[in-house]
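Contributing: when you submit paired examples, paste them exactly as shown. First protein:
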Amino acid sequence: MPSVWVDADACPKVAREIIVRAAERTRTAAWFVANHTVPLPRSAWVKALAVSQGFDAADDEIVERIQPGDLLITSDLPLAMAAIERQAKVMTTRGEALDANNIRARVQMRDFMETMRASGEHTGGPSGYSDSDRREFANALDRWLAKNA
């Protein structure tokens, strides 16, 4: 049975709660990987994996452990690309599917926006996590679990 891997360093609390409830309901292993302690309930299905402090330490741990068919939940595009290359499924905490067909364009746009910000351009950041984002994420996660759990 595939596992769910969560890039927990930047996972919104509400998304974390959705993942925990879904893992319990479907008896699916969910691994929250971060370089800090993530508050999680005691559960046979929900596990925290704390990694050393360091640039991309959590990402490296996820890439090392993720298996083909597992699901990664992240908004980190380079991490998403590495997981896709390992045949994992990827979705953002807003429920957007990332795959081999769209990841390169997303990474290129991210790099372009980084270049713009470095040149002094104010590009703004992502919008706040809305009720609509929460619903889209919960629905996308439920669909994946229904097919894979």
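Second protein:
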Amino acid sequence: MSSFRLTLLRHGATVAPKGMLIGHTDLPLSALGEQQMASRNDHFVRFPPSSIASSDLGRCAGFAQQLAEKTGLNCHINHNLREMCFGELDGLAKPQWSEQQQAAWALWSHNPESYTGAGIEGWASFSARVNAACRLWLQAVHGDHRVLITHGGVAKALLLDWLGLPAARHSQFWLAHAGMITLYWDDEYPPVLQGIDNEVLQGE
């Protein structure tokens, strides 16, 4: 039997304008985002990681690599842990969206599992991609505290799969920038959600 703490930490705020979808668009953290992530360092002093993984996008990988250097660990970087690709909406400021694009986003938000328009990555393939990548990482490493630096959508997809919930419930697991989810993992049982911590400095 293998049991361990699993922490999912979302990246901090980026330089993207408010409301912009940046799935595969690779934008850096803002000064606020850097401050948000730095505020999580105390958690990892209290609970040192035994393994660290991250999306390959800079808004996640930068902090993951810093944490790995501080703790003397290798950092597992995997492009399959990227956020969902939002197709033609990815990296496009909301004021530039056409009426059709606005309608597409409304349909996706209502039921991401069945909507496949506007070039948005299908939920089934997205969920399968990130769950497979996370599972391979967890199976390959050891230790009692495994940390994934991740994206909001990836965290939702993982939790929905682990807890057996449909994609339409994705808004149930809203995660703030630098928000943190902690689970207890035991190979013989479903993961236990211990908490969602969104108590971190947020911008206006």
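If you have annotations for the second protein, write them as plain sentences, like these:
DSSP finds six helices and six strands in the chain.
The chain has a mean pLDDT of 94.
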